[in-house]
Design a protein that fits this description.
single chain; alpha/beta; Rossmann fold; 6-stranded parallel sheet; about 25% helix; globular; Tubulin/FtsZ_GTPase_sf; (Perigord truffle) hypothetical protein; Misato_II_tubulin-like
């Protein structure tokens, strides 16, 4: 068994994490005559005993959010809740004059959650009803998975959790008081037979980036050989010039401190470029944007949680995946892209995809920033020669639909004919389940109906997800470096610039771009 522990740092990360766990929960099979799920649930779920003595499975995850960020979700849920006498209070004796208990108003669960609690068919989720990530959550968590940080309020205008130093200081304060790894992480780590790694979902452009950087440093100090895969969430929304500069500085600090200590860093953001016509979502809704990201994240990491015998090969462990992409030792930043294939109605059976569909990027390959006189835009990677170091691709279509161009070991279409890149493809007929907590963001012509699906979903998606290490990240790194050189104080500027420079050099190793268009 090779377990993975997940850290979810911040409200934005918890939206992504909720979609991830809902999908994992859908892979459980309950019918006696059902075929075993290809997914090994022990990788991401921990066995336990509930209050009624029954066996439970809860995610191996730690969920951090600010005060008010958990919505209607209870820390002690139905699996662990004990009936208490409502008249029982705090023992009297030393103080006999009575007590006044003040409680903050509770957030009422929405109809979707009430129907789940009563075991009824879930009510339809509407965009207006999703206020928090917990509103569409379908999973019971261990009570020690949820950690509310009461020092800051969610979306506070008075004391916003924005600057990187706030997250850094908060972690160090809590660590001095409790030892964060001892209090939170060690319980889950000690339950593992053979922990293969840690995956981290974190915001990267606000104070959570500082919190994550300190957390990764503590993990690396305690577990020096454990694989750590970090997904850094960014929100490419138009905002004020001042706030965007602040976000970029926060991101620079996050990269500077996390990348040297992590096995692989994948930036995640909603694409700035035009989405394919089959994607329809409200860019103002985190529920929608995180759902799009979750399909790609869950698909490209699928081999790390498959049972033995499913041939995941070199993509079957977090560290193996990171090593495959990091060809020369300096390529620790990978970009993510995805394609949702269209079923071909003329196929011998329903569900055959058209693999000529175009994909779209979900990280830096989709552009940079541009405003005012500050040069922050990457200006497009097409204007200079690029180099691809490695590509890993997970293709989720049926065996019947597999085409000649998908033979294991074949190279995909790489930019500028760089067919010397390391390439690994994993094919599985285990398509992506579209469950009731997932928003309707894809055209109906992309949905594959499945009758009698044992995983609990009656609709599926044929998906290809790709992680790539290439020199296309260099313009973005250089634009960040440019901002740091202009606005960061002397005390921290040199260290961050040196780190960013080393990251850029890592993507120059082993090839010659023949261009200095982006040199400072």
């Amino acid at each position: 068994m090779h377990e993975i522990i997940t850290l979810q740092l911040g409200h934005q990360a918890n939206y992504l994490g909720t979609h991830f766990w809902n999908t994992q929960e859908s892979y459980f099979t309950y019918a006696e005559d059902a075929s075993p799920s290809p997914v090994d649930h022990n990788v991401h779920f921990r066995p336990g005993i509930g209050v009624d003595g029954g066996e439970t499975f809860t995610p191996r995850t730690l969920i951090y959010d600010l005060k008010g960020g958990f919505g209607s979700m209870k820390k002690i849920n139905a699996l662990y809740e004990v009936e208490r006498d409502s008249d029982a209070g705090i023992p009297q004796g030393l103080w006999d004059n009575g007590m006044t208990i003040q409680r903050e108003p509770l957030v009422e669960p929405i109809e979707y959650q009430r129907s789940l609690d009563t075991g009824l068919l879930p009510a339809r989720l509407e965009p207006a009803s999703v206020r928090y990530w917990s509103d569409f959550n379908k999973v019971f968590y261990h009570p020690r998975s949820s950690i509310q940080l009461n020092q800051y309020d969610l979306n506070s205008k008075v004391m916003p959790f924005e600057n990187i130093s706030l997250g850094r200081d908060l972690f160090n304060q809590l660590n001095r008081e409790h030892d964060m790894l001892d209090r939170d992480f060690r319980l889950f780590a000690e339950e593992c037979d053979q922990m293969q790694g840690v995956q981290i979902f974190t915001s990267a452009e606000d104070a959570w980036g500082g919190f994550a950087a300190e957390y990764v440093a503590a993990l690396r100090d305690e577990y020096p050989k454990t694989g750590i895969m970090t997904w850094g969430l960014q929100d490419f929304e138009k905002t004020t010039r001042e706030r965007q500069i602040n976000h970029t500085v926060n991101l620079a600090y996050t990269l500077s401190n996390i990348i040297p200590l992590t096995s692989l860093y994948i930036p995640l953001g909603f694409p700035q470029s035009k989405l394919p016509g089959y994607v329809h979502l409200d860019t103002a809704l985190q529920w929608h944007k995180s759902a799009l990201l979750s399909v790609a994240v869950e698909s490209c990491t699928l081999p790390t949680r498959l049972r033995d015998g499913f041939g995941a090969g070199r993509l079957g462990k977090l560290d193996d995946l990171a090593s495959l992409l990091n060809v020369n030792g300096g390529q620790k930043i990978a970009t993510l892209s995805m394609t949702v294939h269209k079923p071909n109605p003329s196929a011998p059976r329903s569900g055959e995809p058209s693999l000529s569909d175009k994909g779209f990027g979900l990280s830096w390959d989709s552009g940079g920033y541009e405003f005012g006189g500050m040069a922050m835009r990457a200006r497009g990677v097409q204007s200079h020669e690029s180099h691809t170091f490695a590509v890993t691709e997970v293709v989720r279509v049926s065996n019947h639909d597999r085409t000649k161009d998908m033979t294991a070991g074949d190279s995909p279409e790489l930019p500028n004919d760089h067919h010397d890149a390391v390439f690994e493809r994993y094919h599985t007929s285990f398509t992506y389940p579209v469950i009731d907590s997932f928003p309707s963001i894809f055209s109906t012509d992309r949905i594959i109906p499945v009758e009698g699906d044992a995983t609990g979903g009656d609709q599926r998606l044929a998906v290809s997800a790709r992680l790539t290490t290439s020199s296309q990240v260099m313009p973005r790194l250089k634009s960040i470096k440019n901002v740091v050189s202009r606005v960061v104080g002397v005390d921290e500027r040199e260290a961050i610039l040196n780190d960013l420079g080393e990251f850029i050099e890592g993507f120059e190793t082993g090839w010659n771009s023949g261009s200095d268009d982006y040199d400072d």
